[in-house]
Amino acid sequence: MFKFFLKKNFCDGWDNFFFLVLSNAVTIALLFAGYFAIKAADSVNSYLPLLAFVVASGVLGVQLFAWGANAAKIADFREGTFSVFLTALKSTWITGFSLGAMIAFSLVLARFAVAYYLKMYFENGNFIGLLITAALGWFFFVSAAALQYFIPLYYLQGNNNFKKCLKKSFIIFYDNVGFSIELFLYNSVLFVLSCVTFMIIPGLNGILLSSTNALRIRLYKYDWIEKMSEIEPGFETNRDKRNEVPWDELIAEDKESLGPRKLSSFVFPWK
Fold first, then answer.
1. I need a surface site. Which of 109, 153, 186, 240 has the fewest CB within 10 A?
2. Do 48 and 40 touch, CB atoms closer than 8 A?
3. Per-residue pLDDT reduced to its tens digit, 43-94
4. CA torsion, points 43, 44, 47, 48, in degrees to nearest 10?
């Protein structure tokens, strides 16, 4: 299943290459604006940059959250448009800002907490400081891996609000730990590649498309579990049977929709 996800995500990114680049141009503009806002705040007060960082992250969250509507369309074999982005922007800007600001505020707290507990260990020799630092590290790793699903959940399951998306993100992570870590590592590679290309491609929007594609495919598992539970009572609570997911059958339609997509079709799309 993961191999098919990699193929589909690459194809979706390639087929929407120019749209992704234009979308990332908006993201890059916001990143620059945030950088200069933080720099300007630093000249006023030493603590003001932290506030500027949280606000700038909230604004970036608005853009990414709205673009999630396009990510859901592209993942569903449709085309993304800026009209979809603008429509989503009007209805989701509060949720997007809340998500971005929450993540930024958590990072600020983590920065001070880690510095405090490491100082406790290195200066006072208190081993508890090192243990708490390690615990915080694992907590933020799990949170980062789980929050990959936050925006996709909002658009792939239309009945989710902020609280439900947050809760379901962690539920999906703990129910699919291996897959979530693989996705996190893959997205980390995409982030490094984005840094090399100055966030032009795949960029933050491309990483969001990756998470959306991954979750869209993974949700087939839960549709299958629900169907099997109707046929066989108690199926949902049987972890051995739940893990025997017939992925070839579940993604057969998507494979047919995607097609064989030989390498020549990427280099010479007109053939």
1. 240
2. no
3. 888 889 999 999 999 999 999 999 999 999 999 999 999 999 999 999 999 9
4. -100
Q: How far apart are CA 104 and CA 50, in angstroms?
A: 9
Q: What is the pLDDT at residue 222?
A: 93
SS3 labels along the chain? CHHHHHHHHHHHHHHCHHHHHHHHHHHHHHHHHHHHHHHHHHCCCCCHHHHHHHHHHHHHHHHHHHHHHHHHHHHCCCCCCHHHHHHHHHHHHHHHHHHHHHHHHHHHHHHHHHHHHHHHHHHHCCHHHHHHHHHHHHHHHHHHHHHHHHHHHHHHCCCCCHHHHHHHHHHHHHHCHHHHHHHHHHHHHHHHHHHHCCCCCCHHHHHHHHHHHHHHHHHHHHHHHHHHHHHCCCHHHCHHHHCCCCHHHHCHHHHHHHCCCCHHHHHCCCC
> pTM for this one?
0.93
Q: And the tokens for 202?
A: 């795949």
- pLDDT digit string (tens) for 118-149? 988 888 778 899 999 999 999 999 999 999 99
